[in-house]
Amino acid sequence: FVLEREVSERLKELAAQTGSTLYMVMLAAYTTLLHKYTGQEDMIVGTPIAGRPHAELSNLVGVFINTLAIRNYPSSDTSFLEYLQEVKEQALNAYEHQDYPFEELVEKLNLTRDTSRNALFDTMFELKTMEQQEFELEGLTLSSYPLDNQTAKFDLSLEAIEQPEGILCSLEYSTVLYKPETITRLAQHFAEIVRAIAYHPQQPLAVLNMVTDEEQEQLIYGFGEVGVTDDPVVEAGALFHTYVEEQAQLVPDHVAVVYEEQQLTYRKLNERANQLARRLRNEGIGRESIVG
Protein backbone atom coordinates (compact mmCIF):
# COMPACT_ATOMS: atom_id res chain seq x y z
CA PHE A 1 0.00 0.00 0.00
CA VAL A 2 1.15 3.56 -0.70
CA LEU A 3 1.16 6.59 1.58
CA GLU A 4 0.28 9.30 -0.94
CA ARG A 5 2.82 11.93 -1.92
CA GLU A 6 1.23 14.87 -0.04
CA VAL A 7 1.23 12.91 3.22
CA SER A 8 4.80 11.71 2.58
CA GLU A 9 6.00 15.28 1.98
CA ARG A 10 4.33 16.43 5.20
CA LEU A 11 6.10 13.66 7.12
CA LYS A 12 9.45 14.81 5.71
CA GLU A 13 8.64 18.40 6.69
CA LEU A 14 7.76 17.21 10.19
CA ALA A 15 11.10 15.39 10.40
CA ALA A 16 12.97 18.54 9.32
CA GLN A 17 11.08 20.74 11.79
CA THR A 18 11.79 18.41 14.73
CA GLY A 19 15.42 17.68 13.86
CA SER A 20 14.60 14.02 13.36
CA THR A 21 14.53 11.78 10.27
CA LEU A 22 11.78 10.20 8.20
CA TYR A 23 12.77 6.85 9.73
CA MET A 24 12.12 8.20 13.25
CA VAL A 25 8.74 9.66 12.24
CA MET A 26 7.68 6.37 10.63
CA LEU A 27 8.90 4.32 13.60
CA ALA A 28 6.96 6.59 15.96
CA ALA A 29 3.86 6.14 13.80
CA TYR A 30 4.29 2.35 13.68
CA THR A 31 4.72 2.02 17.46
CA THR A 32 1.70 4.31 17.92
CA LEU A 33 -0.33 1.84 15.86
CA LEU A 34 0.97 -1.10 17.94
CA HIS A 35 0.18 0.84 21.12
CA LYS A 36 -3.40 1.42 19.99
CA TYR A 37 -3.83 -2.24 19.02
CA THR A 38 -2.35 -3.69 22.21
CA GLY A 39 -2.81 -1.03 24.88
CA GLN A 40 0.85 -1.61 25.82
CA GLU A 41 3.14 1.28 26.73
CA ASP A 42 6.43 -0.61 26.49
CA MET A 43 7.26 -1.52 22.90
CA ILE A 44 10.37 -3.16 21.42
CA VAL A 45 10.73 -3.07 17.64
CA GLY A 46 13.66 -4.54 15.77
CA THR A 47 15.37 -2.75 12.91
CA PRO A 48 18.32 -3.67 10.66
CA ILE A 49 21.23 -1.24 10.43
CA ALA A 50 23.91 -1.06 7.74
CA GLY A 51 26.80 -1.13 10.22
CA ARG A 52 28.92 1.29 8.18
CA PRO A 53 29.08 4.42 10.37
CA HIS A 54 32.45 5.52 8.95
CA ALA A 55 33.06 6.75 5.39
CA GLU A 56 36.08 4.41 5.10
CA LEU A 57 33.72 1.41 5.27
CA SER A 58 31.46 2.52 2.41
CA ASN A 59 33.44 0.74 -0.34
CA LEU A 60 34.57 -2.23 1.73
CA VAL A 61 33.18 -5.59 0.58
CA GLY A 62 31.29 -7.63 3.17
CA VAL A 63 28.14 -7.83 5.26
CA PHE A 64 28.20 -5.43 8.20
CA ILE A 65 24.45 -5.52 8.91
CA ASN A 66 23.43 -5.73 12.55
CA THR A 67 20.03 -5.77 14.27
CA LEU A 68 18.98 -3.09 16.74
CA ALA A 69 16.27 -3.61 19.33
CA ILE A 70 14.73 -0.17 19.85
CA ARG A 71 12.58 0.23 22.95
CA ASN A 72 9.97 2.99 23.19
CA TYR A 73 7.24 3.96 25.63
CA PRO A 74 4.15 5.27 23.81
CA SER A 75 1.63 6.79 26.23
CA SER A 76 -1.97 7.75 25.39
CA ASP A 77 -1.78 11.25 26.91
CA THR A 78 1.56 12.15 25.24
CA SER A 79 1.34 14.31 22.12
CA PHE A 80 2.88 12.85 18.99
CA LEU A 81 5.44 15.67 18.85
CA GLU A 82 6.60 14.84 22.39
CA TYR A 83 6.63 11.13 21.62
CA LEU A 84 8.64 11.73 18.44
CA GLN A 85 11.35 13.44 20.52
CA GLU A 86 11.48 10.36 22.78
CA VAL A 87 11.75 8.06 19.76
CA LYS A 88 14.51 10.28 18.36
CA GLU A 89 16.54 10.02 21.57
CA GLN A 90 16.08 6.24 21.78
CA ALA A 91 17.09 5.80 18.14
CA LEU A 92 20.19 8.00 18.50
CA ASN A 93 21.25 6.05 21.60
CA ALA A 94 20.78 2.80 19.69
CA TYR A 95 22.89 4.11 16.77
CA GLU A 96 25.68 4.96 19.23
CA HIS A 97 25.90 1.27 20.13
CA GLN A 98 25.16 -0.22 16.72
CA ASP A 99 28.42 -2.21 16.69
CA TYR A 100 27.33 -4.30 19.67
CA PRO A 101 26.44 -7.75 18.25
CA PHE A 102 22.75 -8.56 18.60
CA GLU A 103 23.41 -12.20 19.55
CA GLU A 104 25.72 -11.08 22.34
CA LEU A 105 23.02 -8.72 23.61
CA VAL A 106 20.51 -11.59 23.76
CA GLU A 107 23.05 -13.73 25.66
CA LYS A 108 23.77 -10.90 28.13
CA LEU A 109 20.06 -10.45 28.87
CA ASN A 110 19.89 -14.15 29.79
CA LEU A 111 16.48 -14.57 28.16
CA THR A 112 14.63 -17.86 28.12
CA ARG A 113 15.21 -19.14 24.59
CA ASP A 114 12.38 -20.74 22.63
CA THR A 115 12.93 -21.98 19.07
CA SER A 116 9.34 -21.03 18.15
CA ARG A 117 9.80 -17.39 19.21
CA ASN A 118 12.14 -14.51 18.48
CA ALA A 119 14.23 -13.72 21.50
CA LEU A 120 13.76 -10.00 22.01
CA PHE A 121 11.03 -8.69 19.72
CA ASP A 122 8.22 -10.00 17.51
CA THR A 123 7.98 -7.18 15.01
CA MET A 124 10.40 -5.27 12.78
CA PHE A 125 10.41 -1.97 10.93
CA GLU A 126 12.70 -1.00 8.06
CA LEU A 127 12.86 2.13 5.92
CA LYS A 128 14.78 1.76 2.67
CA THR A 129 16.10 4.54 0.47
CA MET A 130 16.62 3.19 -3.03
CA GLU A 131 19.15 5.53 -4.61
CA GLN A 132 19.48 3.54 -7.84
CA GLN A 133 16.75 1.14 -8.88
CA GLU A 134 17.73 0.67 -12.52
CA PHE A 135 21.19 -0.38 -13.70
CA GLU A 136 22.53 -0.21 -17.24
CA LEU A 137 25.56 -1.73 -18.92
CA GLU A 138 26.49 -1.13 -22.54
CA GLY A 139 25.59 -4.06 -24.79
CA LEU A 140 23.56 -5.84 -22.10
CA THR A 141 19.85 -6.00 -21.30
CA LEU A 142 19.20 -6.30 -17.57
CA SER A 143 15.96 -7.17 -15.82
CA SER A 144 15.18 -7.72 -12.15
CA TYR A 145 14.36 -11.21 -10.89
CA PRO A 146 11.65 -11.16 -8.22
CA LEU A 147 12.46 -13.26 -5.17
CA ASP A 148 9.37 -15.10 -3.97
CA ASN A 149 9.70 -15.28 -0.19
CA GLN A 150 7.26 -17.74 1.42
CA THR A 151 8.49 -17.55 5.02
CA ALA A 152 7.82 -14.73 7.49
CA LYS A 153 10.89 -14.08 9.61
CA PHE A 154 8.87 -12.35 12.35
CA ASP A 155 5.25 -12.23 13.49
CA LEU A 156 4.86 -8.88 11.75
CA SER A 157 7.28 -6.77 9.69
CA LEU A 158 6.69 -3.36 8.11
CA GLU A 159 8.94 -2.27 5.24
CA ALA A 160 8.78 1.22 3.75
CA ILE A 161 10.52 2.49 0.61
CA GLU A 162 10.67 6.11 -0.56
CA GLN A 163 9.28 6.44 -4.08
CA PRO A 164 8.50 9.49 -6.26
CA GLU A 165 4.75 8.85 -5.87
CA GLY A 166 4.95 8.51 -2.08
CA ILE A 167 6.09 5.96 0.49
CA LEU A 168 5.54 2.37 -0.62
CA CYS A 169 4.81 0.13 2.38
CA SER A 170 4.53 -3.63 2.63
CA LEU A 171 3.63 -5.93 5.52
CA GLU A 172 5.06 -9.39 5.98
CA TYR A 173 3.20 -11.52 8.52
CA SER A 174 2.87 -14.98 9.97
CA THR A 175 -0.16 -16.68 8.41
CA VAL A 176 -0.48 -18.83 11.52
CA LEU A 177 -1.33 -15.70 13.51
CA TYR A 178 -3.10 -13.39 11.06
CA LYS A 179 -5.67 -13.64 8.29
CA PRO A 180 -5.11 -11.56 5.12
CA GLU A 181 -8.16 -9.41 5.89
CA THR A 182 -6.75 -8.63 9.35
CA ILE A 183 -3.50 -7.37 7.85
CA THR A 184 -5.41 -5.41 5.19
CA ARG A 185 -7.34 -3.67 7.97
CA LEU A 186 -4.11 -3.06 9.92
CA ALA A 187 -2.57 -1.47 6.81
CA GLN A 188 -5.59 0.82 6.45
CA HIS A 189 -5.34 1.78 10.12
CA PHE A 190 -1.63 2.56 9.73
CA ALA A 191 -2.36 4.76 6.70
CA GLU A 192 -5.05 6.62 8.69
CA ILE A 193 -2.71 7.17 11.66
CA VAL A 194 0.06 8.46 9.38
CA ARG A 195 -2.44 10.85 7.74
CA ALA A 196 -3.56 12.10 11.18
CA ILE A 197 0.07 12.58 12.23
CA ALA A 198 0.88 14.47 9.02
CA TYR A 199 -1.91 17.00 9.60
CA HIS A 200 -2.23 17.06 13.42
CA PRO A 201 1.11 16.06 15.04
CA GLN A 202 0.29 18.09 18.15
CA GLN A 203 -2.56 15.73 19.11
CA PRO A 204 -2.16 13.15 21.92
CA LEU A 205 -1.69 9.56 20.76
CA ALA A 206 -5.11 8.65 22.14
CA VAL A 207 -6.79 11.23 19.90
CA LEU A 208 -4.99 10.33 16.65
CA ASN A 209 -7.59 8.70 14.45
CA MET A 210 -7.00 5.30 12.85
CA VAL A 211 -10.61 4.48 11.93
CA THR A 212 -11.46 4.58 8.22
CA ASP A 213 -14.53 6.38 6.85
CA GLU A 214 -16.19 3.02 6.14
CA GLU A 215 -15.63 1.85 9.73
CA GLN A 216 -16.88 5.21 10.98
CA GLU A 217 -20.18 4.60 9.18
CA GLN A 218 -20.42 1.12 10.69
CA LEU A 219 -19.87 2.55 14.16
CA ILE A 220 -22.56 5.20 13.63
CA TYR A 221 -25.17 3.21 11.75
CA GLY A 222 -24.45 -0.26 13.10
CA PHE A 223 -23.42 -3.53 11.44
CA GLY A 224 -26.96 -4.78 10.75
CA GLU A 225 -29.38 -4.31 7.88
CA VAL A 226 -29.36 -0.53 7.87
CA GLY A 227 -30.85 -0.22 4.41
CA VAL A 228 -34.06 -2.13 5.18
CA THR A 229 -35.78 0.73 6.98
CA ASP A 230 -37.70 3.55 5.35
CA ASP A 231 -35.43 6.10 7.02
CA PRO A 232 -32.02 4.55 7.84
CA VAL A 233 -30.21 7.86 8.35
CA VAL A 234 -29.51 8.68 11.99
CA GLU A 235 -29.34 12.40 12.66
CA ALA A 236 -26.26 13.66 14.46
CA GLY A 237 -27.03 13.92 18.18
CA ALA A 238 -30.13 11.69 17.93
CA LEU A 239 -30.94 9.73 21.09
CA PHE A 240 -30.44 5.98 20.84
CA HIS A 241 -33.69 4.99 22.55
CA THR A 242 -35.62 7.23 20.14
CA TYR A 243 -33.98 5.44 17.23
CA VAL A 244 -34.96 2.03 18.68
CA GLU A 245 -38.56 3.20 19.14
CA GLU A 246 -38.66 4.34 15.50
CA GLN A 247 -37.34 0.98 14.31
CA ALA A 248 -39.90 -0.80 16.49
CA GLN A 249 -42.59 1.07 14.53
CA LEU A 250 -41.00 0.64 11.09
CA VAL A 251 -39.56 -2.91 11.24
CA PRO A 252 -40.85 -4.49 14.49
CA ASP A 253 -39.89 -8.07 13.55
CA HIS A 254 -36.35 -7.37 12.36
CA VAL A 255 -33.58 -8.63 14.64
CA ALA A 256 -32.09 -5.82 16.72
CA VAL A 257 -29.80 -7.61 19.20
CA VAL A 258 -27.93 -10.93 19.00
CA TYR A 259 -26.02 -12.56 21.84
CA GLU A 260 -24.76 -16.13 21.34
CA GLU A 261 -27.95 -18.18 20.67
CA GLN A 262 -30.37 -15.47 21.85
CA GLN A 263 -31.85 -12.66 19.79
CA LEU A 264 -34.37 -9.86 20.22
CA THR A 265 -36.48 -8.09 17.62
CA TYR A 266 -36.88 -4.31 17.71
CA ARG A 267 -40.40 -4.76 19.15
CA LYS A 268 -39.13 -7.05 21.95
CA LEU A 269 -36.13 -4.81 22.66
CA ASN A 270 -38.40 -1.78 22.98
CA GLU A 271 -40.81 -3.67 25.26
CA ARG A 272 -37.95 -4.82 27.51
CA ALA A 273 -36.55 -1.27 27.64
CA ASN A 274 -39.96 0.11 28.65
CA GLN A 275 -40.32 -2.57 31.35
CA LEU A 276 -36.93 -1.62 32.76
CA ALA A 277 -37.80 2.08 32.65
CA ARG A 278 -41.05 1.51 34.58
CA ARG A 279 -39.23 -0.60 37.17
CA LEU A 280 -36.65 2.14 37.71
CA ARG A 281 -39.35 4.82 38.05
CA ASN A 282 -41.17 2.69 40.64
CA GLU A 283 -37.93 2.54 42.62
CA GLY A 284 -37.83 6.35 42.71
CA ILE A 285 -35.25 6.83 39.97
CA GLY A 286 -35.60 10.15 38.13
CA ARG A 287 -33.63 12.48 35.87
CA GLU A 288 -29.89 12.78 36.68
CA SER A 289 -30.06 9.77 39.03
CA ILE A 290 -27.02 7.52 38.77
CA VAL A 291 -27.85 3.88 38.09
CA GLY A 292 -25.22 1.11 38.01
Structure description:
Residues about 225-230 have low confidence and may be disordered. This protein has 2 domains: about 1-210, Chloramphenicol Acetyltransferase (2-Layer Sandwich); about 220-280, Rossmann fold, CATH 3.40.50.980. The protein is α+β, with helices and mostly antiparallel strands and about 290 residues long. The longest helix is centred in the middle third of the chain and has 20 residues, at about 180-200. Helix 1 (about 5-20) crosses helix 5 and helix 2 (about 20-40) crosses helix 3. A hairpin with a 2-residue loop joins strand 7 (about 255-260) and strand 8. The protein has 8 helices and 8 strands.
SSE layout and pairing:
Layout: E1 2-4, H1 5-18, H2 22-38, E2 43-49, E3 66-72, H3 80-96, H4 102-109, E4 123-128, E5 156-163, E6 166-173, H5 180-199, H6 213-221, H7 240-250, E7 255-259, E8 262-265, H8 266-282
Parallel strand pairs: 4-5
Antiparallel strand pairs: 1-6, 2-3, 5-6, 7-8
Quickly list its features:
single chain, 292 residues, alpha+beta, Chloramphenicol Acetyltransferase, Rossmann fold, 2 domains, 4-stranded mixed β-sheet, 8 helices, 39% helix
